[in-house]
Design goal:
The chain has helices at residues 3-11, 16-34, 43-63, 72-82, 88-104, 114-127, 139-147, 153-168, 172-176, 213-226, 250-262, 267-271, 277-288, 293-300, 306-317, 321-337; strands spanning 183-185, 191-195, 207-211, 235-238, 241-246. The chain is mainly alpha-helical. Strands 1-2-3 form a three-stranded antiparallel beta sheet. A two-stranded antiparallel ribbon has the order 4-5.
Amino acid sequence: MSLTANTARRRHPRTKSTVGSGRIKLSQNWRERLETLVGGYSANTIRCYRADFAIFEAWCRQEGRTALPATPETVAAFVLAQSKSAAPATVSRRRAGIAKIHRLLNLDSPVSTVEVNLATRTVFRQKGRRQDQALGLTGTLKQKLISACPADLQGLRDRALIAVGYDTLCRRAELVQLRVDDLTVKLDGSGTILVRKSKADQFGDGRLAYLSPEALSHLQRWLRAANLNTGPIFRGIRGAQLMPDALHPYSVARVLKDLARDAGLEKALIAKLSGHSMRVGAAQDMAAAGIDLGAIMHAGGWKSPDMVMRYIEHMEVGKSGMARLYGNGQETTMNQHN
């Protein structure tokens, strides 16, 4: 046996026991490695990575496959299996989570491969890329929910939450991160508030958002009742006790749905409400008022017009060439009859 062969064996022992122990170690370490992202990534992003890879790991155990390191064939099979119950966007997010965990452990990513790309393409062709859109909490719906708020501490908070969420076009995570310290009251009765970080602004350049006199009034009533002078604006309430920490982002949708039920909205509408409904509804109302796209993007902190156009597309369809053709034809017909 050659010296080269002996050296290779010493450097790369491939016994079943060492390979197995290495896989166990990787399986135990990925959660620890994920914690190194704290501070550099948002808490929601880290939470998604953790949850999505845990789902992948559990699926691998059930199927008798190895999660770390995973092969492209394993990830491709996972993508196809997940597509039976999850939306394409969710499948794509879980795919990204698998790639991230592998990179954190200095493993080759099995995701950017022919096998996985083909599986993903199959999912999109079968189910389409289009995502379901949250119901827009437009002005009329907003007032219905505000009117349904009870006259207690939680009701004051929820009124302020809805009014501020609508005016600032904040995503749910941005809304619950707003701070009393960043509120400025103007002489005309309006206000501004600093949105410190956002999905499109991970490095915290921030943006100033406008608050109407109505929204500011709701907000000030809540702050006085809760005796808040600093820290998070929107906090949990347990019984009659105010919690010290910010409200959880997931709680925003729950607040909206509970109030929608109290307001007597139909179940189908309630199901479509989400933590982004205020953002969607405000964009739709601005578009309906004839406000230009650039101003809408500035109000909501969008860097690209793509998502704004998705929010307002049902209104834009009414302005399309075909809609205008039928509209003009109807007007001509009516004029001829008159």
